[in-house]
Write a structure and sequence with these properties.
Blueprint lengths: L9 H9 L1 H8 L3 E2 L11 E2 L4 E5 L9 E7 L3 E4 L20 E11 L6 E7 L5 E8 L4 E8 L4 E2 L12 E7 L3 E16 L27 H8 L8 H18 L8 H10 L4 E2 L3 E2 L3 E2 L18 E2 H15 L4 H20 L15 H13 L1 H6 L3 H11 L16 H6 L1 H8 L5 H20 L14 E2 L2 E2 L1 H18 L8 H13 L28 H8 L12 H11 L4 H10 L9 E5 L4 E6 L2 E6 L25 E5 L23 E3 L3 H4 L8 E3 L4 E6 L2 E9 L3 E3 L5 E3 L6 E9 L2 E10 L6 E10 L8 E2 L3 E2 L5 E6 L5 E4 L5 E4 L4 E12 L19 E15 L4 E8 L4 H9 L7 E6 L3 E6 L4 E6 L11 E4 L3 E9 L2 E7 L20 E8 L2 E3 L6 E6 L2 E8 L5 E7 L1
Parallel strand pairs: 15-16
Antiparallel strand pairs: 1-12, 2-5, 3-4, 4-12, 5-11, 6-9, 6-12, 7-8, 7-11, 8-10, 13-14, 17-18, 19-20, 20-21, 21-22, 23-31, 24-27, 25-26, 26-29, 27-28, 29-30, 30-39, 31-38, 32-33, 32-35, 34-37, 35-36, 36-39, 37-38, 40-41, 41-42, 42-44, 43-46, 44-45, 45-50, 46-49, 47-50, 48-49
Length: 1021
């Protein structure tokens, strides 16, 4: 048994009086749990109070404290311990603001008049702080009340308390009875997560509910109760029935069981319910780890998590949907009994259980189960009560808020949006269903259309969460939102055009930054090398195909149809035939160059491969490092270049097993021991103070560039504020993508770390799926292992070919290192320095694998170091042979400049000159481009003698508006000017561009925003 026994008998009291310091540490309770009679001696009480241990109701354990009281009755104690911040079970330690909080569970058998007052005071029993709990509820309730939210002399948040008396008193009652359990006198709790409910509405009273979409809002719930309704037409009722039928059909399970009754009986018995005057069982809990226990309760033995409970209920519901009448009757009996238990355990409307944040992740299954079982619940007169419970905990009332308060959130789209649609149907009044559906459609249409600071799907197709592009969270939204689109398609309640169009862009963008399905490490957030893929989105793409186009003029979306045929057509003959023969669609072709300014990412695609280029800036974070995830994730955005074949990440040579977290390909880094590489913060999302990171596109080619600067910046999560790395690594980096080559340039590379080498990584290949043996001009073919060698390159004659047929031509004079052998590393979800392990790491701390790795070594604390090399991804066997024999010569490009001011490259094939301009203080003295007013990325293509195509990007996203206010996630215009030699006219002038002439020069102005490419055709006068 995990509960403490509190021995306060007469003999013990005498021993304590003789030597009060002898046993104080062992006997002063932090938490009271009522399993043994001795604990009754803990309290002083008035003459009208009667207390006893009872198994009539209990929370944790098998007993609780039954208190029978009358007017002004009280229980009081001085014997308790207050936990310090360091002693409290805080998931992130002191990283987030946290404060002393009381935790208490109460059971009320029937609604009573009056309330209970919880108070704390001094040794003389003088009350200092207090709060009241009304007795107008039934069942279990758990409350968390921070001391700073109490009445009286409330302390400030995050302030240690030193109260010495605790009292619970009956206020304005004649007589009554309650059951108390699991009293934590004071522990620190994360200030974000003490939630209000009907019993403690004063918590976060002035907190705007849109600031925390998880937090149930009393005002929002009240909106549901006051929702005006109107009578339904037959056509509208028919649409309600259509939507309901679509939902029901989507949730129906396959009929695969023979003896369904025996199976469901076994499933139901897992709940271990005891039926009597009440239904008793283990507490249905949410995140026990956030509450103090003397001994950790055993999973599925001492409690049942609500997620686990939901899985059981979902099993019952799924089998009900495919059973005969006799079996359905029995399942209905099981299900309604379990539902009464669920409600009695404190999951009624208006109960927050202390906290239930991120609840959508835990309640998905139970929401589905309740929807499927609407009819049995209605027959048991439980449907409206269950519906109210779900409407409260899923915060459905937010759809009824003022439109000005609508704020998009990926967590909502993932874990609540589809379930809101089901919850709307958990009621018996069709007029109310129709009214809620109308508001739901409006809410979804508006929030999906948002691409400003409130939006999560940005103008470039990126999916924002935690203040940045985060596909891992986007995938959750992409998993559930298409169900909403298809369910509502073609009805009065369908998603509006703007929302449909914006979501379409975001979902289709996933296929641009993935190859074929994998989106790699660059934008993996805190999940590097962890099967980051869009492959599971096949049903979702199909849903969007048959949701129609955003304009609602076609039943099939041709863009999604063509994308579907490319991605999954060969494994879905049925839909391939429909889309090909009935709708005349063909698989899309997807070469080209694509930019994601809000992610500081570019994708260069040719044939069946993709190169993903990644940086970061003042506005785009580098990666997400969590307390037990991505612990060594400092470098995945340091100008990285990930080469992905059509076979995906793992079969392109990327694996967590043995991965050296220093050496992401393309990155310029300080090579550190992993215990030094690990972040010193629990949470870190590093942003530099540099605004230059982005890409420009011209036709199928482009330039990516960034100013890498680790010296100063900020942390976008947790402890927001100034942050930097002691090595003060800096570099100007660019990648010019022309055709089937990537020209990589680095200049101004520096560091102050005199103990560790600065490197630019060429490749790191896990060899499990290698397609060939690595090769270099210096070593020849690497046909043995281990090998670790280095050499100095000269005369642009040095070549390397990695284990997957990617060739690297070193053009600069550098020290090149190459090694092949066995590597050992640590799992990204294990911390060397704290020993913490994320359960998702499955206990794997150390990893290993066989690798081939190559890098350019710039030495310790370099100043003005540089590199130049060209990558030829996934070349043919013939090209490999010609490189090895020295026959291959590439004269298709010329690096014209690579210094502090600019990197400039000319490509003969496309007749384009690319410019990455970092310093605008000097004239460029180019043939055409003379000067720019802001750091820029420019491609100028000679169409003919008198015509130039100019593509230009000013990569500063500029999240500051005209008044200087910071608007995270929303770019504001910056005026960019560039001077051209001679007089030129713009053929395709837009509202963003202006032109004037000065002597023999043309001055072009562009109102640049969103880091997007502006594409203009100039003709010479």
């Amino acid at each position: 048994m995990f509960k403490n026994s509190f021995l306060f008998g007469f003999l013990f009291l005498i021993l304590m009086e003789c030597n009060p310091g002898l046993y104080a540490q062992d006997t002063t309770p932090v938490k009271l749990q009522f399993e043994n009679p001795e604990v009754l001696l803990q309290f002083d009480k008035d003459a009208n109070s009667k207390i006893a241990l009872s198994d009539t109701h209990y929370h944790f354990g098998k007993k609780s404290l039954q208190w029978v009281f009358k007017k002004s009755s009280y229980l009081q104690t001085h014997n308790f311990k207050i936990l310090s911040e360091a002693e409290s079970p805080l998931a992130y330690g002191d990283y987030f603001p946290n404060s002393p909080t009381v935790v208490l569970s109460i059971y009320n058998e029937q609604i009573q008049a009056g309330s209970l007052r919880i108070s704390y005071g001094d040794q003389a029993n003088q009350e200092e702080v207090w709060f009241d709990i009304p007795l107008n509820f039934t069942g279990w309730r758990t409350v968390w009340v921070p001391f700073y939210e109490m009445q009286g002399n409330a302390p400030q948040p995050n302030t240690q308390i030193n109260f010495t008396s605790f009292k619970i008193q009956a206020i304005d009652v004649v007589e009554g009875r309650v059951f108390l359990d699991d009293l934590v006198f004071s522990q620190y709790q994360d200030d974000r997560y003490a939630y209000p409910d009907f019993l403690v509405p004063f918590i976060k009273k002035n907190f705007a509910p849109e600031r925390d979409h998880w937090m149930p809002s009393l005002a929002y719930y009240d909106n549901i109760l006051k929702l005006p309704v109107k009578s339904l037409s037959q056509s509208r009722q028919a649409e309600l029935d259509t939507i309901e039928a679509r939902l029901q059909a989507r949730l129906k399970s396959a009929d695969t069981l023979d003896d369904k009754l025996a199976y469901v009986t076994q499933v139901y018995q897992e709940l271990a319910l005891v039926e009597g005057e009440t239904i008793k069982g283990r507490p249905i809990t949410f995140r026990n780890s956030e509450t103090y226990f003397d001994e950790t309760p055993k999973y599925d033995e001492d409690y049942i998590e609500v997620h686990r409970f939901g899985q059981i209920m979902s099993q019952l519901a799924q089998i009900y949907s495919v059973s005969d009448a006799v079996t359905q009757a029995k399942i209905a009996d099981y299900f309604t009994t379990a539902t009464r238990y669920f409600l009695d355990q404190g999951w009624q409307a208006g109960a927050s259980g202390g906290t239930r944040h991120h609840i959508g992740y835990s309640l998905e299954d139970i929401a589905v189960a309740f929807f499927i079982m609407r009819k049995p619940l209605e027959e048991a007169q439980l449907l409206n009560e269950v519906g109210a419970s779900m409407q409260w905990v899923f915060n459905l009332g937010k759809i009824l808020a003022d439109e000005k308060d609508f704020v998009a959130n990926i967590d909502y789209f993932n874990t609540q949006s589809f379930y809101h649609l089901m919850i709307i149907y958990m009621r018996t009044d069709p007029e109310q269903i129709a009214a809620l559906l109308e508001h739901y459609s409006k809410y979804m249409s508006i929030t999906l259309a948002q691409d400003d600071a409130h939006g999560v799907f940005k103008v470039d197709g990126t999916s924002w969460h935690h203040g940045g592009h985060y596909p891992a969270y986007g995938m959750g939204a992409f998993k559930n939102l298409p169900k909403v689109f298809r369910t509502l398609a073609g009805t009065y309640f369908q998603i509006g055009t703007a929302g449909h169009k914006n979501f379409k862009k975001a979902l289709l963008t996933t296929r641009l930054y993935s190859n074929t399905y994998d989106f790699g490490f660059a934008n993996a957030g805190r999940h590097p090398l962890e099967d980051n893929s869009i492959k599971f989105l096949q049903p979702q793409f199909l849903d969007m195909v048959f949701s129609g186009n955003p304009e609602h003029t076609a039943k099939v979306d041709a863009d999604f149809g063509s994308a579907y045929l490319r991605l999954w057509g060969n494994e879905d003959a049925k839909n391939k035939e429909v889309l090909t023969n009935h709708y005349n669609l063909k698989p899309e072709q997807l070469p080209g160059y694509h930019t994601l300014p809000y992610a500081a990412t570019a994708i260069h695609r040719r044939n069946t491969w993709a190169a993903i280029l990644k940086g970061y800036s003042k506005y785009v974070w580098a990666s997400e490092i969590y307390i037990a995830s991505n612990r060594y994730g400092r470098y995945p955005a340091n100008g990285t270049i990930q080469l992905l074949s059509e076979k995906g990440e793992e079969q392109s040579g990327y694996s967590q097993l043995g991965w050296d977290w220093n050496r992401y390909p393309g990155a310029t880094i300080i090579n550190l021991p992993l215990d030094n590489l690990e972040s010193d913060l629990s949470l870190l999302m590093f942003k530099s103070n540099q605004t230059f990171a982005g890409a420009v596109q011209q036709d199928d080619n482009g330039i990516f560039a960034m100013i890498l600067d680790e010296s100063t910046g900020s942390n976008a999560d947790g402890q927001r504020g100034a942050y930097g790395f002691s090595g003060k690594l800096k570099a100007h980096k660019s990648v010019f993508s022309f055709g089937e080559k990537l020209i990589c340039i680095g200049s101004d590379i520096s560091s102050v770390d005199a103990n560790h080498d600065v490197e630019t990584v060429l490749f790191q290949n896990n060899l499990e799926y290698a397609t060939q043996q690595p090769f270099s001009k210096y070593t020849g073919t690497l046909d043995k292992s281990p090998i670790d060698t280095h050499w100095e390159t000269t005369k642009q004659s040095d070549w390397l070919i990695d284990a997957f047929g990617n060739a690297y031509h070193i053009l600069s004079d550098n020290s090149v290192h190459l090694k092949q052998g066995h590597q050992q590393s640590y799992h990204n979800k294990y911390s060397i320095n704290t020993g913490k392990m994320n359960p998702k790491g499955n206990g794997v701390k150390e990893t290993e694998g066989d690798y081939a790795v190559a890098w350019i070594n710039h030495g310790k604390a370099p100043q003005q170091a540089n590199y130049q090399y060209v990558i030829y991804p996934f070349i043919s066997k013939e090209r490999i042979k010609s490189i090895q024999t020295g026959a291959f010569k590439d004269v298709s490009f010329k690096i014209k400049r690579a210094d502090t001011q600019a990197h400039i490259v000319y490509d003969k094939i496309s007749q384009s000159t690319g410019y990455a301009i970092y310093d605008t203080s000097l004239y460029l003295k180019e043939e055409l481009l003379q000067k720019v007013s802001l750091p820029s990325l420019i491609l100028i293509k000679e169409v003919d003698k008198k015509t130039r195509q100019i593509n230009i990007v000013q990569p500063d996203l500029n999240f500051y508006n005209k008044t200087g206010d910071y608007t995270n996630g929303l770019s504001h215009p910056l005026p960019l000017k560039f001077n051209l030699k001679g007089k030129w006219n713009i053929v395709n002038k837009t509202k963003e561009v202006s032109i004037k002439y000065s002597k023999m020069n043309t001055i072009v102005g562009v109102n640049s925003t969103h880091g997007k490419t502006y594409d203009y055709i100039f003709v010479k006068n």
